[in-house]
């Protein structure tokens, strides 16, 4: 057949360690987890955007580094974000990125991107639980804690 569509194969195996993993319940726990899994050498150098993948009990399935950018920004491809989310059968995600400048104010672009991701997530019944901005000095800003999620 000349115009046959290529088959897409997806596989996912739940690790037993997920069942024993941390169940995150607040932004401080998530921030601590993210800081432990962020490269200290680059957190003040360039922006990185990551997603924390969660199961139904808010247990952490993994942290995926979605993009690495420049000093003042990074691009987020929603198709890749949701491909990872759906492939891992995650029902909730937490968004995170760093501000190398240490500025913890959410920019207009940060708010727009969060809203765009939130709207797309509703189509897949995926919950966006928070979006954290991390500063190199260990501080963080939580969209959920500040009522803008």
TrEMBL record:
PANTHER family, sorted: DNA REPAIR PROTEIN RADC, UPF0758 PROTEIN YEES-RELATED
Protein name, per record: JAB domain-containing protein
Listed InterPro entries: MPN, RadC_JAB, UPF0758, UPF0758_CS
Coiled coil segments of this chain: none
Keywords per UniProt: Hydrolase, Metal-binding, Metalloprotease, Protease, Zinc
PROSITE patterns according to UniProt: MPN, UPF0758
Limits of the MPN domain: 23-149
Entry keyword Transcription regulation: no
């Amino acid at each position: 057949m000349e115009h046959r569509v290529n088959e897409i194969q997806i596989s996912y195996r739940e690790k037993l360690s997920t069942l024993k993993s941390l169940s995150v319940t607040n932004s401080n726990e998530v921030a601590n987890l993210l800081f432990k899994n962020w490269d200290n050498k680059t957190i003040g150098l360039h922006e990185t955007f990551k997603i924390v993948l969660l199961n139904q009990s808010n247990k952490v399935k993994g942290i995926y580094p979605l993009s690495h950018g420049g000093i003042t920004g990074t691009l987020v491809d929603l198709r890749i974000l949701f491909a990872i989310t759906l492939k891992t059968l995650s029902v909730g995600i937490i968004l995170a990125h760093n501000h190398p400048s240490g500025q913890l104010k959410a920019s207009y672009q940060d708010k727009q991107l969060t809203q765009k991701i939130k709207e797309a997530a509703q189509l897949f019944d995926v919950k966006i639980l928070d979006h954290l901005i991390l500063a190199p000095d260990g501080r963080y800003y939580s969209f959920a804690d500040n009522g803008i999620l």
